[in-house]
Specification:
three-stranded antiparallel sheet, 180 residues, 8% strand, Arc Repressor Mutant, subunit A, mainly alpha
Length: 180
């Protein structure tokens, strides 16, 4: 039986990295392969979480993209351009965001208007209430349990900064791969 990580989160010695693809871990950075597997698991868990949390808030038909778009539109309580939503969420396929906006409009969660030849999308009162309900569920079901794990706010912020920095490396590598 394999040992579980100790309280620091470190894996026991001698097991080697836990990866999804041994052929990738056989390269120059097994730790990067291990990180990527963790990222795969975390990203899928996060996407599953946001859809189910929004369902618990009363909106069961929203995809993870719909939820992210709604939160982005509601951010700072001011209207957003579709291009800005795509930029912030790092979504290249603008059709995904356009579809999400249309779906959110049909549900009465956002409204749009044309300002200076640009479509501006803003959260409705119903959309703001949905985001508040989501936040309450998030506090109860996610934030409180994560705090019991001993993660300090500063440590989470540093992890987030490192993750953003690594995302830049992946973006650069994607641009380079596109030119091969």
């Amino acid at each position: 039986m394999a040992k579980s990580p100790d309280s620091s989160g470190a894996e026991p010695q001698g097991l080697g990295p836990i990866v999804s693809s041994a052929h990738l871990a056989a390269g120059a950075s097994p730790a990067l392969s291990e990180f990527e597997f963790g990222l795969i698991l975390a990203s899928h868990a996060f996407l599953r979480w946001i859809a189910r949390a929004m369902a618990a808030a009363g909106f069961p038909d929203l995809s993870p993209t719909d939820v992210m778009v709604l939160h982005s539109i509601n951010h700072r309580e001011r209207g957003k351009r579709q291009a800005d939503i795509c930029l912030v969420l790092a979504i290249e396929d603008t059709h995904l965001v356009a579809y999400a906006i249309k779906k959110l409009e049909r549900l009465g969660l956002v409204k749009s208007e044309i300002v200076a030849k640009e479509k501006i999308v803003a959260a409705t009162e119903r959309g703001e209430a949905a985001c508040r309900a989501y936040r309450e569920i998030r506090e109860r079901l996610l934030v409180e349990p994560v705090k019991t794990m001993g993660f300090e706010e500063g440590r989470l912020s540093k992890m987030a900064a490192r993750l953003r920095a690594l995302s830049g490396q992946y973006d650069q590598a994607a641009r380079a791969a596109a030119s091969l």
